[in-house]
Amino acid sequence: MEAGWCRVLVDIAVLGAINWDINLFVERFPEVGEEVPVYRITRVPGGKAANVAVAAARVLGPNRAALIGCLGKDDIAEVQVRILQDEGVVTSGIKMLEGEESGQAYILIDRYGRNMINTFFGANLRLSPSDLHNPEIESLLEEAQIITVIDPPVETIREAASFGKRLGKTVIWDAGVRSTLGIKTLREVLAEVDYVVLNRVEVKNLTGVENPATARKRLSEVNSEIRLIAKLGEKGCVMVGPKETIKVRGVNLRRLGMKVVNTVGCGDAFLGVFAASRAEGFNDKEALERANLAGAIKATRHETRGSPTRMELERFLEFKEVGETT
Questions:
Q1: How many Å apart are CA 214 and CA 204, to the nearest integer?
Q2: In sequence order, what are the beta bridge partners of 231?
Q3: pLDDT tens figures, 49-69
């Protein structure tokens, strides 16, 4: 099945992985060589970029968030595109590839909602720099206010960031697994992005240090204007920029009568809502507060794409933590 091409003015273009997630729920993670029973299995759409696009679309509304990525020409792809379109995501930037298998992720989730992920990238690895200049995809990048890059091949990340910079767009990069390559290897990408988004482990992987302020100082040697957003899980998040630091504490879910059941996809909900909030004109502090709340709400839901709708987010805004600026 080919993704239909249509010209739609979008606010956000998201580049990266589209996966089919097989979630295995267990009481605890196994030791090496140990067998642990699985008490529940779910098979759901996932992939970081697809999750982020959906999270943004749920807040912005239909046809304002586009996804750029690759799927194999298989049964998974047909289901994936249909689900994305039902969510209001623009799918004209998705390439369908013969002879490739769509990406899949195998995820272990313990009783505390913690996760371990093994990913088969498949067709996701085939999004090339030249693809970004296909007329259909290039038009999406030109129309978007914000280009959010996640986990395509490094050369494609580099081209997307450079292209976005030339167009005067806001470029957000969730470095994810690429963070292990370090600052030196990723120097050209980091020089072109406005925001780099990392979890606690990725901060150290990328910069060699754990403290976000120190990490940002190292990044500033490459890009003096870069803003580092560190996702701190239950502790909230922090953004360190050239002139200010914004800290947002974790949401107290007990006040909402909720508990954590699955943290898979929390970072994607965070990023999608942050990008959507910036596209709607919220400043960094406001966008971080909303994103922090969205990630917390997602943690209370079993599904990977458990990010809140606009109505749900607004209903819980009174429980958001207010950011502190220094």
A1: 10
A2: 199, 237
A3: 999 999 999 999 999 999 999
- Residue ranges of domains in the chain, CATH in brackets: 12-325 (3.40.1190.20)
Query: What is the rounded CA–CA span in Å between residue 135 and residue 93?
Result: 10
- ∠ CA 290-151-84, nearest 5°, is 65
* Residue 149, amino acid: V
What is the C-alpha separation between 250 and 236, in angstroms, rounded? 4
Question: Which residues sit opposite 108 in a β-bridge?
Answer: 24, 116
Q: How many angstroms separate the Cα of 248 from the Cα of each of 127, 182, 235, 272?
A: 35, 26, 8, 17
Distance (Å, whole) CA 33 – CA 208: 31
What digits encode the pLDDT tens for the residues 253-288?
Answer: 988 889 988 888 999 999 999 999 999 999 999 999
Q: For residues 39 and 67, what is the distance between their CA atoms, to the nearest angstrom?
A: 33
